[in-house]
Amino acid sequence: MNSDSDLQIAGDILEVPHLLQAPREHPVTVAEFAGLARSIAADRSQWEHLVQYDATSRWYHRLRTGPGYEVWLLSWVPGQGSGLHGHGRSSGVLTVLTGALTERTERGTRALGSGAQRVFAPGYVHEVVNDALEPAVSLHVYYPGLTEMPMRSAQSARCTAASPTADVTA
Predict the structure, then answer these.
(1) Distance between CA atoms of residues 57 and 135, nearest Å
(2) Of 77, 84, 85, 147, which has the fewest Cβ atoms less than 10 A away?
């Protein structure tokens, strides 16, 4: 039974070029940035050979840039942390590649195991720490690229409303 609201397409939909969206060369949505991070995480050949560990400070390496975004690779030996900080006007995707990290916010503490992903908006304040006994590696995508990382005290973080974040699962 058909009605005037039913849509019927005759023939091959792929033969109608004006209905197809061209694939994007670079990510532009939160989901696409999270997907970019997952694809890099899955291809260890892109990052594994670059990882270094530094006992005196966190090691980091800018892995990739694109229009309006940056991808950073970080390593964390046991006990290393970021300190409580924000990301200025940047949004981000944090993906744990190996090991485990702990994220602390005014809302509580969250364990992030290998494969865990966090998405955050501008204004989000957190601290990331390796509380485990083994080193960890993480991938960070910032859009727009990270231009500031203001450090915060625990007291100022309690006075600032946290911006929404989301857990992303594959």
Answers:
(1) 13
(2) 147
Number of H helices, E strands in the chain: 2, 9
d(CA 76, CA 93): 17
Question: pLDDT tens for residues 46-80?
Answer: 999 999 999 999 999 999 999 989 999 999 999 99
Q: How far apart are CA 38 and CA 139, in angstroms?
A: 9
Tokens 């509580």, residue located: 108
- Please, are residues 139 and 37 in contact by the beta-carbon 8 Å criterion? yes
For the whole model, what pTM was predicted? Answer: 0.76
> Given this model, what pLDDT does residue 28 score?
80
**What DSSP assignment string belongs to 77-111?**
-TT-B--SB--TT-EEEEEEEES-EEEEETTEEEE
- Which residues touch 43 (CB under 8 Å, ≥6 apart)? none
pLDDT in tens, 85-101: 888 899 899 999 999 99
Q: How far is the C-alpha of 97 from the C-alpha of 89, rounded, in Å?
A: 25
User: Before 144, cis peptide (omega within 30)?
Assistant: yes
Environment class of 31 (CB within 10 Å of its CB; exposed 0-12, middle 13-18, buried 19+): exposed
Are 117 and 37 spatial neighbours (Cβ–Cβ below 8 Å)?
Answer: yes
DSSP 53: -
